[in-house]
Design goal:
CATH architecture of the largest domain: 3 Solenoid
Number of domains: 3
Structural class: alpha/beta
Helix content: 10-25%
Distance between the termini: 75 Å
Mean pLDDT: 96
Number of helices: 5
Low-confidence stretches: none
CATH topology of the largest domain: UDP N-Acetylglucosamine Acyltransferase, domain 1
CATH superfamily of the largest domain: Hexapeptide repeat proteins
CATH class of the largest domain: Mainly Beta
Strand content: 25-35%
Radius of gyration: 26 Å
Number of strands: 38
Largest sheet: 11 strands, parallel
């Protein structure tokens, strides 16, 4: 998609300095050529301003004198660049209209503005918003609601009675609304607990490839507005995730736990069931959260990498930690400390 640089400036709240021109796309400052828009957000990349062939560069006011091309001035060049990239790269998952190989139930509400690709299945009672795109081989079960402008990539499965907001993106392999992991022991046999709740997903939510979100047992699993879930994230039944929280890949959140607003959860984190994490918490990668976090801040629990030899020694010493503590306590008492 080609746009005038001046139009981009207006839409991303930047000030244009220099000549207007046509911009085809964005690119790295060292790789960009004619018709491309680059950016500098850190002073270490300033040498690139002297050699770049980009038609325009997004940068801060203080770096303007070093720029030989047209410029878009921004207090936050990285954010401005992200907005520009979004403008220049609209996502088209399927051509507008309904493929003749798609299977659409007679009771589904399908506006004329939607795009539904080959072999998609949409069951009765489902309501699609305007400009929804559904990729090939995705399955939308009965009585699902999907808001305007939501993109569903190929091979996504959405269970019955799920609600999904506006402007969401759901990537391939995601499964939303499968049964939660609920069983009751009856002697040496497990009895399945019916999962009767739903999944409620807010607006502007992104759900990564092969991520799974289980439906609630009785209450609903809730993903609030602007939550970002990476690939391979597991959200168990009755979990609630607050607005503007981001969860990195391979993290698992066990049932009925609540995550606050504006949290950042690193990769490979494990969060146990029935705990609460307050707003504005950062959890670093590979941390295991075994109890509620009631104060904002940064939390970690993983062991840093070491040579295998040192790691083995430290593991053995850790096993003796209680014994060493008791010995030190006795020594302190006998020495009069």
């Amino acid at each position: 998609m080609t746009m005038k640089l001046s139009d981009i400036a207006n839409q991303i709240d930047c000030r244009l300095v220099g000549d207007d021109c046509n911009i085809e796309n964005v690119a790295d400052i060292n790789q960009a050529g004619n018709g491309y828009l680059a950016f500098v957000y850190n002073a270490r990349y300033l040498p690139g301003l002297k050699t770049t062939k980009a038609s325009a560069v997004i940068l801060k006011e203080e770096w303007l004198k070093q720029c030989n091309s047209s410029a878009l001035v921004s207090d936050n060049p990285r954010l401005a660049f992200a907005k520009a990239a979004h403008l220049l790269n609209s996502v088209i998952i399927a051509d507008k209209g309904v493929s003749n190989t798609a299977v659409i139930a007679s009771g589904a509400n399908i506006p004329a503005s939607v795009a539904i690709d080959h072999n998609a299945v949409i069951k009765s009672g489902t309501n699609l918003g305007e400009n929804v795109q559904i990729g090939a081989c995705s399955v939308i079960e009965s009585n699902v609601e999907i808001g305007d402008n939501t993109l569903i990539y190929p091979n996504v499965t959405i269970g019955h009675d799920i609600k999904i907001g506006k402007n969401c993106i759901i990537y391939s392999g995601a499964v939303i609304g499968t049964d939660g992991f609920g069983y009751v022991a009856d002697g040496d046999v497990y009895i399945k607990v019916p999962q009767l709740g739903s999944v409620i997903i807010g607006d502007n939510v992104e759900i990564g490839a092969n991520t799974t979100i289980d439906r609630g047992a009785l209450l609903d699993t809730i993903i609030h507005d602007d939550v970002k879930l990476d690939n391979l994230v597991q959200i168990a039944h009755n979990v609630e995730i607050g607005k503007h929280t981001a969860v990195s890949a391979c993290t698992g959140i066990a049932g009925s736990s609540k995550i606050g607003k504006n949290c950042i959860i690193g990769g490979g984190v494990g969060i146990r069931d029935n705990i609460e994490i307050t707003d504005n918490v950062i959890i670093t990668g590979r941390t295991f959260v075994s109890s509620s976090l009631k104060e904002p801040g940064t939390y970690s629990s993983s062991v840093l990498v070491d040579t295998n030899q040192n790691w083995k020694k430290n593991v053995m010493r850790f096993k003796r930690l209680d014994e060493m503590f008791k010995r030190i306590t006795r020594l302190e008492k006998t020495s009069g400390k």
